[in-house]
Amino acid sequence: MRIRVAECTVRYEGRLNAYLPEATRLVMVKADGCVAVHADGGAYKPLNWMNAPNTFTDDGDTWIVVNPKGETLTIEFGVVHFDTSIELGEDPGLQKDGVELELQRLLAERPETFGDGMSLIRREYPTPIGPVDLLCRDDDDHTVAIEIKRRGEIDGVEQLTRYLEFLNRDKRIAPVRGIFAAQQVKPQARTLAEDRGIEWVEVDYEELKGIDPDVMRLF
Amino acid sequence: MRIRVAECTVRYEGRLNAYLPEATRLVMVKADGCVAVHADGGAYKPLNWMNAPNTFTDDGDTWIVVNPKGETLTIEFGVVHFDTSIELGEDPGLQKDGVELELQRLLAERPETFGDGMSLIRREYPTPIGPVDLLCRDDDDHTVAIEIKRRGEIDGVEQLTRYLEFLNRDKRIAPVRGIFAAQQVKPQARTLAEDRGIEWVEVDYEELKGIDPDVMRLF
DNA sequence: AGTTCCATGTCGCGG
DNA sequence: CCGCGACGTGGAACT
């Protein structure tokens, strides 16, 4: 990564034309060749940029960056206050405890979302083909397997179907009801679920967050 | 702006939870307090960030950034390879569409638009807080600072006011008249400009293009 | 590879 | 301050 702090003007010609009058800014060139021009404010978004892949021309005072679409970023430098290069290496990348995991956590705390008297047996209940998100017991003492997705599509129903097939072989817990839960259940998934005798339900993430006991404790 | 290159782990807890395992990254803290953590690739988007406004706590090895919504960004540092702070100052900001720049170019070629005998001293005349679009001299030998916008709103008048404040400290050119020029000057901006003793004028882009000497030569 | 949809979207305008 | 739409949207997942 190369970091240069310098007075500069910047011109972008591409999907639109844009121009930055002379001022002191930070210009960042990453290992993959992408270039970003930052002011000392605004949000994380640079004032102007050029993503990789591109061709980079360093003509002394002027950097010209061109991408395959023909868009160009031209940076003309004045006084350079600072210029350094440093090797950062590969980044392991961001791990998002995405919404799906959060949904699972919230629903595990609120099994009654799926019916009065529903209680949690355990999260990530193991089967030979992978863990079921939630295993519960309903008020009739029947076992219930719940698959949770952010977006409920056909493959999620297929997944739950396979789990149910294995769970129902276990005499101690059979028969096992299936519930397919998602923020949004697509029509095709609804149809397939109903055809397989699997219930489906749409859950409201924001509402669940609102009644999160962890949050409640704060008040 | 503060720039630190260091080994770090980063945790974000807010609208979702996210975690960055230890690696060498660039952490940028802008003057407005916003924080961005960059890897040496990807696009211009940081791996993780926290926009202003926020409260920043520097606990030696650990930076904790909390915004008013309660979202937190926690950065734990290991080896620091590099750490520097530099003052960039205000940024004049991005001019999109090229319309502003085009207007500036056209008006620089036609300073008499602003009055008979008006002549251009220079474009992008530098001040400590950024360049004035046009600096001119009128037929009475008074200096005139002209700010050009596509859409003339209050903040443009404020900008010109600040320029005038600096320019009028320079005995060689004071007193400096101000003219606020735009394709359309909003009523609030008109009122404010008049209150500040700044003239305002609406310019016709199409008409200016029609009498552009560069274009004329083509015929 | 083309397309659709999500996003800690961000940003700017109008009410 | 809040809703609404555009964005050089960028980026991932799916066809």
Topology:
Two copies of one chain form a homodimer.
Chain A: E1 2-13, E2 17-29, E3 35-38, E4 48-50, E5 55-59, E6 62-66, E7 72-85, E8 95-97, H1 99-109, E9 119-125, E10 132-137, E11 143-152, H2 154-167, E12 176-185, H3 187-195, E13 199-202, H4 205-210, H5 213-216
Parallel strand pairs in A: 11-12, 12-13
Antiparallel strand pairs in A: 1-2, 1-7, 2-3, 3-4, 5-6, 6-7, 9-10, 10-11
Chain A binds a DNA duplex (15 and 15 nucleotides) through residues 12, 14-16, 18, 42-45, 48-51, 71, 96, 150-151, 153.
Annotated CATH topology of the largest domain in chain A: Trna Endonuclease, Chain: A, domain 1
Which series of helices and strands of chain A comes N to C?
EEEEEEEEHEEEHEHEHH
Question: Which quaternary structure do these chains form?
Answer: homodimer
Main CATH class of the largest domain in chain A:
Alpha Beta
Number of helices of chain A: 5
Radius of gyration of chain A over alpha carbons? Answer: 27 Å
Indicate the CATH architecture of the largest domain in chain A: 3-Layer(aba) Sandwich
Shape of chain A: elongated
Mean pLDDT rating of chain A:
86
Strand content of chain A: 35-45%
